[in-house]
């Protein structure tokens, strides 16, 4: 940590990062998931560690190697991810990049669901998953000082993301454009709008590694003054 070009301005800080999708079991062989690659979260974890932070990276299933000097906590489901995040506290800051499945199967089958000749397809009843970001950002003695969320949005991105920031009580939201010609999910670039209490800052389209560097630098400034 603290090597390369980055100054060690996060030395002594602990930062919690979530990344990747979650996998919600339907039965022992099937799950609900999404196309999150985990790349942005892993890049952020690496950038924070290079500035000297102790980083706990709670990650859903991805095809990535954890960056050097990062404490990786692999999880599968949203409930696992929430437990791992709470266990990682206290932290000075939290960055929630995970694409947490909004729903899980209400009662996963213990046995593999099999086709029955002539029978209709099975219905899968869903139930809401816990909101990890909102839980971590809720006021309380163990709330990290700086809580950052991500929002992949279509349509009126600024307004939707600003509403999300207030609803989840996080400090910053990094909103990025998805759909309509963009290839953010799984792609290498992100187009970020940083939403804070002060307003919206539009960042130019840049590689996910550059987004990570810029965010880590901003976080170091924010955490420096106390
Ligand atoms: N998030 C989370 N736990 C959830 C859902 C979302 O921690 N169960 C976090 C994500 O990691 C992200 C932020 O909340 O930092 C926004 O995720 P998003 O899916 O945009 O928000 P939702 O509240 O799920 O809203 P939507 O219905 O638009 O998906
Ligand atoms: Ca969601």
From TrEMBL:
Segments forming a coiled coil: none
Residues reported in the UniProt entry to bind CTP: 102, 112, 130-133, 150, 164, 168
E.C. number(s) listed in UniProt: 4.1.1.36, 6.3.2.5
Location of region: Phosphopantothenate--cysteine ligase: 15-226
Cofactor details (free text): Binds 1 FMN per subunit.
Signal peptide: none
Pathway: Cofactor biosynthesis; coenzyme A biosynthesis; CoA from (R)-pantothenate: step 2/5; Cofactor biosynthesis; coenzyme A biosynthesis; CoA from (R)-pantothenate: step 3/5
Keyword Metal-binding: yes
Keywords: Decarboxylase, Flavoprotein, FMN, Ligase, Lyase, Magnesium, Metal-binding, Multifunctional enzyme
Domain DNA/pantothenate metabolism flavoprotein C-terminal: 10-219
Recorded superkingdom: Bacteria
Catalytic reaction equation(s): (R)-4'-phosphopantothenate + L-cysteine + CTP = N-[(R)-4-phosphopantothenoyl]-L-cysteine + CMP + diphosphate + H(+); N-[(R)-4-phosphopantothenoyl]-L-cysteine + H(+) = (R)-4'-phosphopantetheine + CO2
Entry annotated with the keyword Flavoprotein: yes
GO MF entries: phosphopantothenate--cysteine ligase activity; phosphopantothenoylcysteine decarboxylase activity
Role noted for this protein: Catalyzes two steps in the biosynthesis of coenzyme A. In the first step cysteine is conjugated to 4'-phosphopantothenate to form 4-phosphopantothenoylcysteine, in the latter compound is decarboxylated to form 4'-phosphopantotheine. Catalyzes two sequential steps in the biosynthesis of coenzyme A. In the first step cysteine is conjugated to 4'-phosphopantothenate to form 4-phosphopantothenoylcysteine. In the second step the latter compound is decarboxylated to form 4'-phosphopantotheine.
Family: In the C-terminal section; belongs to the PPC synthetase family.
Name recorded for this polypeptide: Coenzyme A biosynthesis bifunctional protein CoaBC
Full-sequence range covered: 199 to 424 of 424
């Amino acid at each position: 940590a603290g090597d390369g070009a980055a100054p060690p301005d996060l030395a002594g800080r602990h930062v919690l990062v979530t990344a990747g999708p979650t996998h919600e079991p339907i039965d022992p062989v099937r799950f609900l998931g999404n196309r999150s690659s985990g790349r942005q979260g892993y890049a952020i974890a690496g950038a924070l560690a290079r500035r000297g932070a102790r980083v706990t990276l709670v990650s859903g299933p991805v095809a990535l190697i954890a960056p050097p000097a990062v404490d990786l906590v692999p999880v599968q489901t949203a409930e696992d991810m929430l437990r791992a995040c709470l266990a990682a506290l206290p932290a000075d800051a939290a960055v929630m990049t995970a694409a947490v499945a909004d729903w899980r199967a209400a009662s996963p089958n213990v046995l593999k669901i099999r086709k029955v000749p002539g029978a209709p397809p099975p219905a899968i009843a869903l139930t809401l998953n816990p909101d990890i970001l909102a839980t971590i950002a809720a006021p309380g003695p163990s709330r990290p000082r700086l809580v950052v969320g991500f929002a992949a949005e279509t349509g009126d991105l600024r307004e939707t993301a600003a509403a999300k920031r207030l609803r989840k009580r996080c400090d910053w939201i990094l909103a990025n454009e998805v759909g309509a010609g963009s290839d953010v999910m799984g792609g290498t670039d992100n187009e970020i709008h940083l939403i804070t209490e002060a307003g919206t800052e539009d960042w130019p389209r840049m590689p996910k590694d550059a987004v990570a560097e810029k965010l880590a630098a901003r976080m170091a400034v924010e955490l420096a003054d106390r």
